[in-house]
Amino acid sequence: MPKQQRRTFTSEFKKQMVQLYENGKSRAAIVEEYGLTASALDRWIKQAQTSGSFKEKDNRSSDENERAALRKENQRLKMEVDILKQAALIMGRK
Fold first, then answer.
1. pLDDT truncated to tens, each residue of the chain (94 aa)?
2. Residues 47, 71: one domain?
3. Nearest CA to 72 among 84, 53, 57?
4. Domain span at 91
5. Which segments show compositional bias classed as Basic and acidic residues (predicted)?
């Protein structure tokens, strides 16, 4: 079975799907009619109810935001250490 290509949807489309659901259309009908996955529709509904935004960064918990910031800082520090190692090697040759 061929793998499905990942589709992207605009915020407007997601908002329209959530509105259909909120206006009484069943999840199953929306999923069937628009070729969506139930998990995607459920995620959009949850995002609309919690933050009103479909951007992942707006829907992260404070712990998730902190972990992302720590990962970013860790990556930056590793790069700095690599630069310092290279500089030490160069200075050691002189």
1. 667 677 888 989 999 999 999 999 999 999 999 999 999 999 899 888 877 676 666 667 778 878 888 999 999 999 999 999 999 988 887 6
2. no
3. 57
4. 61-94
5. 54-72
Ramachandran region, residue 36 (left: φ > 0; alpha: ψ -120 to 50; beta: rest): beta
Q: State if pTM tops 0.70.
A: no
Structural domains counted in the chain: 2
Same domain, 73 and 44: no
The position carrying tokens 């609309």 is 48
In this structure, are 55 and 76 located in the same domain? no
Give the closest residue to 27 by CA, choosing from 9, 55, 18. Answer: 18
Contact 43, 36 (CB under 8 A): no
Tokens of residue 80, six digits? 């700095």
Q: Which of 17, 19, 53 is nearest to 35 (CA)?
A: 17
